[in-house]
């Protein structure tokens, strides 16, 4: 079984990715269900976890801020500047976990976050380098290695602190 701390971290991360429009609301609802199973509990978390897929899109924006607050977790408003840096760090972790290719990661970070977040700036050049690799002395493998090294550097920074989650009302 997942520990309450791990479930809180997962919920916090999925909330940030949702706020950055990187995942769908349904995934946040699944995270809320997992958090309940792991022993986290709050009135709004229960309501959030009970949402159907059809309700998720409308309910998550209304319920997520209160659910996170009740658990002592941080909420970043949808599309806010505050969520961009955590989103880039979380996506770097997903690259390192093998959930996307270095080229796809560089493209995504460059296109979505490149001009808005200092952490994303190196990926603008790396994304462009993939498009011109045949005209340089670099290989795709070397570019992949550079993207992975930069992602490791970004992911190594500590995430936002998560306070001890509440396990009961």
Describe this structure in words.
With 169 residues, this protein is an all-alpha fold. The protein has two domains: 4-70, no CATH class; 81-156, no CATH class. 64% of the residues lie in helices and 0% in strands. The protein contains eight helices and no strands. It has helices spanning 4-19, 25-38, 43-49, 53-70, 84-96, 102-113, 121-131, 140-156. α6 packs across α7 (121-131). It starts with a helix and ends in a 13-residue tail after the last helix. Residues 160-169 have low confidence and may be disordered.
List keywords for this structure.
disordered C terminus; 2 domains; 169 residues; elongated; mainly alpha; 64% helix
